[in-house]
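To whoever is on call:

I kicked off a structure prediction for a single chain this morning and the downstream step that reads the tokens threw a length-mismatch warning. I double-checked the sequence; it's 314 residues and nothing unusual in it as far as I can see. Pasting both halves so you can look.
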Amino acid sequence: MATDFVNVSIQSLMRVAPLRNFFLIYENYRHCKSPLVHRFGELTQKIWHARNFKGQVSPHEFLQAVMGRFQIGPQSKPFEFMSWLLNMLHKDLRTSKKNPSIIYECFQGELEVVKEIPNKTGTKEDEDDQNGVQKIIEGGGGGGHDNIAIETCRMPFLMLGLDLPPPPLFKDVMEKNIIPQVPLFNILKKFDGETVTDVVHPRVARIRYRVTRLPQYLILHMQRFTKNNFFAEKNPLWDYIPLPTPEAGNEMLRSKYDLIANIVHDGKPDKGFYRVFVESDELWYEIQDLHVSETLPQMVALSEAYMQIYERQQ
């Protein structure tokens, strides 16, 4: 059965010390009635039990709790699973709208999103929604280029999706795609507040993103899989780590992060498999299903990253 997408997600989250420590203490979530919260806590305690001499632990009870949303058998994406898991844990752990959960304390950041929407008129208005997204809409007037509405909103995020360049059209003499190198800070420019992203759904707009608050743990998702009218393809690019050198006055680059987990996809989009590199006590390990082996840090950067978790330096 294809459970590697669950394994790499759990192994990655287990590197997040505050999250791990929270679930190691049963009293922290004793009041919660959610089976998912308790099964995740039990799994965390199994993995980190001081007297557990087994080479592996059974996630059976936890898998039973997630089977309502994810079928164990068909291959799923770690991004979809981790996104669902974090949002469900937050929802079940939150005691009130004003009290953040351990999920938000670890992973929540904030984005400023500025949309330029054509052919929309109106007046300036402020509005909030139940998810904490604050909007300011300035309606354009007149004709021509003035008939554009500027919509500015602040929204929370748990992950950042990074757009990779399209895969190369031509292959080399060995009939393989030429694999260029793309520095991570190049694709992070999407969130510099100046780079424009054009979208057509749900409506045509030009969007600029700016990170206004960085979380303690930053999850990056490389949008590596694309679909056209005929088949799904995988972008074969890999990313260089770490983040760029901080620059004075630049909010985006002010904090330094260290990589603690790197999820990798190998093979074809619909038939491939996932493995993960995790850091522990300054050593790196490669995990694929039940196989665990120590690896060199240089090997982590030579992999086609799919998801990464960074820890902010103290």
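Update from on-call: the warning came from a stale cache, not from the record. Cleared it. Sanity check on the structure: Confidence is low (pLDDT under 50) at residues 226-253.
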